[in-house]
Amino acid sequence: MLKYICKRLLLMIPTLLGIIFIVFTVMNLTPGSPGRTILGTTATQEQVDQLNHELGYDRPFLVRFLDYCGDLLQGDMGTSYRTRADFTTELKGRMPTTLKLGIASFVLSSILGISLGILSAVKQYSFADTFCSTTAILFASIPGFFLGMVLIYVFGLQLGWFPTFGGTDFKSYVLPVITLTLSNTVIVQRLTRTTMLEAVRQDYIRTAKAKGCSKSRITWKHALKNAILPVITVMGINAGSVMGGAVICETVFSLPGMGTYILTAIRSKDIPVVMSSTVVLSLIFCVIMILVDVLYAVIDPRIRERVTR
Amino acid sequence: MSEKKTDMPAAGQEPLLRVSHLRVSFQTDKALLCAVEDVSFDVRKGETLGIVGESGCGKSISCMSILKLVQGENVRYENGAVLFEGEDTLSMTDKQLQKIRGRKISMIFQEPMTALNPLYTIGDQMGEVLKLHTKLSKKEIWDRCCEMLEKVRIPNSREIMLRYPFNLSGGMRQRVMIAMALLTNPELVIADEPTTALDVTIQAQVLDVMKDLQKEYGCSYIFITHDLGVISEMADRVVVMYGGRVCECAATDTLFEHPYHPYTRGLIASRPYRGMKTDRLPVIPGNVPSLNNKPAGCPFHTRCPDAMDCCREAFPEETAVGEGHTVACWKYAKK
Predict the structure, then answer these.
(1) What is the chain A residue with the closest CA to B117?
(2) Which whole number is the average pLDDT over B63-85?
(3) Domain B15-273+282-327, CATH
(4) CA of B41, closest CA in chain A: separation in Å?
(5) Please, what is the average pLDDT of chain A?
(6) Whether B116 and A204 lie within 8 Å, measured CB to CB
(7) CB B52 within 8 A of CB B237
């Protein structure tokens, strides 16, 4: 198993290199230069060229790419073109906000989604099931930014229960976490319901029943373990896409996290920031995906046998 | 087998299990579809009762009903009773049933490939039965499972206990199922086509194992199959089912020598035998009618060579034609 994990970790290197190259290329192909975006339309061409030269942007593409990779290897994640601030320092300040948001919503949506999914499956066609499924469709069809604004209006402005911006205390995270959680919960709930319904129709469930297992033992021991595998995959993807949701969420709720930071960086063609953020996010995503695969192997002996062979 | 028959309790003694006038239906949007109607049979202590019939004749559903194990929310146990040790299992609560399932009546299923949970070891799944029904310690459970695996002739049982179902062949898995079914020393084992999915050589081994275990533990078997060869090998008495009804019931030898019901005759005639002078096996023409357009009267009249007018109108009463031999056919009905 350890060998398998090491192999997967090593495979991350080419993946990350590929991602870096693609994003670097895309950033280079889009029109405009950092000098122009920073100085604005009123600046003269000389001033723009001057700034671009200072930033090192006038060097050829490949040189800049290799230079960036070299810096990265030495642990230097670059400095922002726009603010001249060190990326690592900025990361340390902003990452906790995004992580709090992401982890809270991931944990909540997983617990809620799985338990509601089981409930729906065990009591198929009951009131609880119909209610869950209907509200699920409702929340799945509302875009995150709109839900965020509705929550701000109702609970922030009208009722005044929660602050509508800033990320300083526990209360200010409540509304963003809810916004981010709901749509992910829906996906997990729907999938758990389907896979559970599939699992309880299997022959081994009938065997368990014939052995004299109680209903709850059948649900929790025999069916859930079989039903959870696809759900774990989706939870992994959810955990990765929480970052995407965080961009919207942080913007709507004005939280000083990674999301808003990346958004501004992309707009102002702040290449070092965009690149290093991408590296950090892809790294997180890769690690989550390895975790998912390891969990698969832990749960399913058939997969375990295949990967450890 | 012959010596066992002399051990059989005298007629009139309470049987181990008595299914009487069982009727099982499925509720659909449009109608109530009746899968099993007015099925009655007894299982005596220590005997093997064979239930034979084509696919879809209701043999599995009748037997699953004994423990209320028919799959699906829409199943209705409409009528009849299943008396086991004097109590009706059909009117039992889930809790009461859980105490009987796996302990007093256990089951062996047809599909050895899917009947075991793929994510738990053989030891886990076998041990679960004892964990549910006995107060044995972990060590005792483990030893008992190993012992049982050896009885079904699985070598190096201690190693197999740690394996997963996917590591085992079909025959091995079915033997694990048999071992699991007999762990608690049940009174009755219901085997639903236990050898159908296996190779012929493995089939014979599995049947052997089952016979030996019956000798050792004295349990009764209900053996569901469509294979008359298996029936003649295993059963003391046979119930022949067609279209959700019992058409004939007799001791195995009697049934093979003097079948009365045209369906039983057809079944026996369609078996291949050595020295057969034809390149085509005789068949019963037609198919089993589906649940939603079951013919009125005797369900077999659409395929019966001897069908009469009265066959289309009503189902015949059960008539005794010999000792312990009953048949439900208008040809033999006392008019």
Answers:
(1) A204
(2) 89
(3) 3.40.50.300
(4) 21
(5) 86
(6) yes
(7) no
| Nearest CA-CA distance, residue A56 and chain B, Å | 57
Q: How far is B23 from chain A (nearest CA, A)?
A: 21
CB atoms within 10 A of CB B281: 10
Tell me how far apart the alpha carbons of residues A249 and A148 are, in angstroms, rounded to a whole number.
7
Q: Is B71 on the interface with A (CB under 8 A)?
A: yes
Q: How far apart are CA B40 and CA B239, in angstroms?
A: 10
> Quick check: B114 contacting A, CB < 8 Å?
yes
Does the structure show a pLDDT above 50 at B5? no
pLDDT band at B62 (very low <50, low <70, confident <90, very high): very high
Residue A152 CA to residue A175 CA, distance in Å, equals: 7
For residue B225, the one-letter residue type is: T
Q: What are chain A's domains?
A: 16-73 (no CATH), 96-256 (1.10.3720.10)
3-state SS, one letter per residue, for chain A: CHHHHHHHHHHHHHHHHHHHHHHHHHHHHCCCCHHHHHHCCCCCHHHHHHHHHHHCCCCCHHHHHHHHHHHHHCCCCCECCCCCCEHHHHHHHHHHHHHHHHHHHHHHHHHHHHHHHHHHHHCCCCHHHHHHHHHHHHHHCCCHHHHHHHHHHHHHHHCCCCCCCCCCCCHHHHHHHHHHHHHHHHHHHHHHHHHHHHHHCCHHHHHHHHHCCCHHHHHHHHHHHHHHHHHHHHHHHHHHHHHHHHHHHHHHCCCCCHHHHHHHHHHCCCHHHHHHHHHHHHHHHHHHHHHHHHHHHHHCHHHHHHHHC
pLDDT computed for residue A207 by the predictor: 94
Tokens of B323: 């000792």
Does A300 sit within 8 Å of B115, measured CB to CB? no
Q: How many CB pairs under 8 A join A and B?
A: 73
Distance CA A19, CA A240 (A): 15
Confidence of residue B12 (pLDDT cuts 50, 70, 90): low
Amino acid at B318: E
- Candidates B119, B128, B180, partner chain A, best to mutate (most A CBs within 10 A): B119
Mutation choice for B interface testing from A124, A207, A221, A222 by most B CBs within 10 A: A207
Q: What is the mean pLDDT of residues A241-262?
A: 80
CB B186 within 8 A of CB B178: no
Q: Is the pLDDT confidence value at B13 over 70? A: no
Q: What tens digit of pLDDT does each residue of A73-99 get?
A: 888 888 887 888 888 888 888 888 888
Q: If contacts are CB pairs under 8 Å, which of residues 134-163 in chain B contact chain A? A: none
Distance of CA B247 to the CA centre of its chain: 16
pTM of the shown model: 0.82
A302: contact with B, CB 8 A cutoff: yes
Is A25 touching B (CB cutoff 8 A)? Answer: no
